[in-house]
Specification:
By secondary structure, the protein is α/β, with parallel strands linked by helices. 42% of the residues lie in helices and 14% in strands.
Length: 339
């Protein structure tokens, strides 16, 4: 049996016109009425005729997810699938489709081709490098944009983020409480705000404990497993080696762990190790990884909600929205100090 819009309207106890306004995200609908219509849609698994709706409303019901990172990074790092899953969850509920654009071209400007995506109603950008190309694209873009991670040089862009600085400080303070003092860090890329913020949190904790930030104990990575492996090899050439390492992502911590094992060192017996993200792999590592949990799926859901709510107002007026989600210290076995 084919469910029609009239069936949805009768089930929700509203007119056909009201049901249509809800499905098309019209802003002037009572929230309780809107929820009744969506409940009827969920219960009947109603699938609107998207091409017909697009023709009638001149709206595509498509948003872009723009991740200017190499394709292998997207599929190797569990962070991105969890983020995209969160975005997709909200878009599916609100009858929007998504288009994934990695913005990886051989051009110096990875955003140049995005201007041709005229059918996008809005875009979510994640893990963007703050460079002249990003800023130029955002300054010229006419569709609403929401960022996962704040963009410090363009405060008008709505964003959802976590308190990376506080989360990193909390973790390093835990390492200090365990008796570690020569604590190194493998940072994220310093041209991404999360990389800078997590390094700032590391520095805050050391300064509060009266310890200096030693340049030789700071090695930059790019959040990938391979960069963690290479950075750990660099740290192991120091004399003496660090007694603990804070990697600014769990994937870099995994790479660091592999480098330590290759060098015949044990965790936490010879050196403590901690990460950031709490991806599913963190709890499955041996030893289980102490880390900072950020709600990755919720980041995606919140970004999608911000964007779709903006589209529902049918306005291009500047709207600045900033949402900060909490982080949580997750203590496991990888940095239990051996006395």
């Amino acid at each position: 049996m084919n469910i029609t819009l009239d069936d949805i309207a009768r089930r929700a106890g509203v007119s056909r016109a009201t049901a249509s306004r809800v499905i098309n995200n019209h802003p002037h609908v009572n929230p309780a009425v809107r929820e009744r219509v969506w409940q009827a849609i969920r219960e009947t698994n109603y699938q609107p005729n998207l091409p017909a709706r697009s023709l009638a409303s001149r709206r595509s019901q498509v948003i872009g997810i723009i991740i200017p990172q190499p394709i292998h990074t997207l599929f190797a790092d569990p962070y991105f699938p969890l983020l995209i899953e969160g975005i997709a969850h909200v878009c599916n509920e609100r009858q929007f489709s998504i288009m994934l654009d990695l913005a990886t071209t051989t051009d110096s400007d990875p955003y140049r081709h995005l201007g041709r995506r005229g059918f996008l109603e809005g875009a979510i950008v994640a893990s963007a490098v703050e460079d002249q190309f990003l800023l130029q694209w955002l300054a010229q873009e006419t569709i609403p944009v929401v960022s996962v991670g704040r963009i410090t040089s363009l405060q008008a862009i709505p964003y959802v983020d976590v308190n990376n600085r506080y989360g990193a400080r909390m973790l390093v303070e835990h390492l200090l409480s365990q008796g570690y003092r020569r604590i190194a860090t493998i940072t994220g890329p310093m041209n991404i705000v999360a990389g800078r913020d997590r390094f700032a949190g590391y520095s805050d904790a050391l300064h509060a404990a009266g310890l200096p930030v030693l340049p030789e104990l700071v090695v930059e990575g790019n959040f990938s497993e391979q960069s963690g492996f290479t950075a750990m090899q660099t740290l192991l050439r120091l004399v003496p080696i660090p007694d603990a390492v804070f990697a600014a992502s769990d994937m870099m911590a995994l790479g660091a762990l592999k480098a330590l094992r290759a060098a015949g060192l044990s965790v936490p017996g010879d050196i403590g190790l901690a990460g950031f993200d709490d991806i599913p792999l963190a709890a499955a590592m041996t030893p289980a990884l102490t880390t900072v949990r950020q709600p990755i799926g919720e980041l995606g859901q919140t970004a999608a909600q911000l964007l779709l709510d903006r589209l529902a107002t049918d306005s291009l007026a500047p709207v600045t929205q900033r949402v900060m989600l909490p982080t949580e210290l997750v203590i496991r076995d990888s940095c239990v100090r051996q006395h």
